[in-house]
Write a structure and sequence with these properties.
The structure is a single chain. The protein is mainly α and 182 residues long. The chain has helices spanning 19-30, 35-42, 46-58, 93-111, 131-151, and strands at residues 62-70, 73-80. It has a two-stranded antiparallel sheet with strand order 1-2. A hairpin with a 2-residue loop joins strand 1 (62-70) and strand 2. Helix 2 (35-42) packs across helix 3 (46-58). It is globular and about 60 Å long.
């Protein structure tokens, strides 16, 4: 629950349940950037990016990695640690739904940039698996996420391949067990 005395306190998954924050996390995976640099890349205002960057920092999702003196001011460069998201676990359905809504919106925005000649990989499922399979699938998902983030290069890299990945694994309540037996 957010602290009423701290208007900047962010609650669990809601910290990333905003399209610009998701875009910032992706951008700051491959390189450390300041709010001004990130705003330029994202086509957003510096003030807006700075606001959302501070919120991500408060939530522990980005870390300050460099401070530089520029024209009498200080530019702070941040980088995203993908493992930081593990700490955001929340049992609150409203936070989970807010995050899923933001992920869906970001996926729709990215899909408009789909390169039609490229190879496409797709999996969609709501199934029942054994506890052992669930743990193995979850671990493999974490490994895929780590690999993606470890191999990310700055977006301006000429030989780089721009890709999109969205993977959210979670247990669901089975409200209708009669469908399984049809």
């Amino acid at each position: 629950m957010p602290d009423a005395t701290n208007p900047f306190d962010l609650d669990g998954l809601r910290a990333i349940a905003h399209p610009l924050r998701l875009r910032l996390l992706s951008l700051l995976t491959a390189e450390a950037l300041s709010a001004t640099e990130a705003a330029r890349v994202l086509g957003e205002s510096q003030a807006n990016v700075s606001y959302h960057l501070r919120r991500l920092a408060q939530a522990g999702l980005v870390q300050l990695v460099e401070e530089m003196n520029i024209r009498g001011g200080t530019a702070k460069r941040y980088r995203h640690d993908p493992a930081s998201g593990e700490a955001l676990g929340s049992g609150r359905v409203d936070e989970h739904q807010a995050l899923m809504s933001s992920l869906a919106a970001e996926l729709m925005a990215r899909s408009a940039r789909y390169q039609s000649e490229s190879e496409f990989t797709f999996t969609e499922a709501e199934v029942t698996v054994s506890r052992e399979a669930w743990e193995r699938i979850r671990d493999m998902s974490r490994e895929i996420g780590k690999l993606i983030h470890d191999e990310a290069v700055p977006s301006a890299t000429p030989e780089g391949i721009r890709m999109s990945a969205t993977l959210a694994l979670f247990e669901v309540v089975n409200h209708d067990t009669t469908r399984e037996h049809e």
